[in-house]
Write a structure and sequence with these properties.
This protein has about 70 residues and is an alpha+beta fold. The protein has one domain. The strands form two sheets. A two-stranded antiparallel sheet has the order 1-2. Strands 3-4 form a two-stranded antiparallel sheet. A hairpin with a 4-residue loop joins strand 1 and strand 2. The radius of gyration is 15 Å and the shape is globular.
């Protein structure tokens, strides 16, 4: 599983590399769709990105964590 957290876009693959590749494609499609709908600036701003000197800068990370849970069948 791969997750572009600021945009809340996820994808998966059988291996970490396949998940990364699928995520890149998903993010590209997400951003292209937002651009076609003329909502890209709004989507980026709502996701915490800032426009600085004509370039979008991603939000800063406080931390990343991985959690798991066992679910009884």
């Amino acid at each position: 599983m791969a997750h572009a957290m600021p945009l809340d876009v996820m994808s998966s693959g059988l291996t970490p590399e396949q998940a990364r590749t699928a995520l890149v494609e998903a993010v590209d499609l997400f951003l292209a769709t937002a651009a076609q709908m003329d909502t890209l600036d709004e989507v980026l701003q709502e996701s915490g990105y800032q426009l600085v000197s004509g370039h979008w800068v991603s939000p800063s990370w406080v931390a990343t964590e991985r959690h798991s849970a066992l679910i009884a069948a």
